Amino acid sequence: MHLFKQYLNDIYNIFKSNWKSFLIIGFIYLLIFALLAPSFEPMVYDNLETKLETIITTKTNAEIGQFLMVSFLALLAITIVITSIHNFFVFVLVKGIAKSKFHYLEILRSNFKYFLKILLFSALKVLVIFFGILFFLIPGIYFTFIFCFALPIMAKEDLSIISSIKRAMEVFKKDWWRNILLIVFLKVIIFAAMIAFSIIKINGLVMLADLFFTTGLIYLLIYNPIKPKQILIKENE
Question: How many CB atoms lie within 10 A of CB 13?
Answer without folding.
Answer: 12
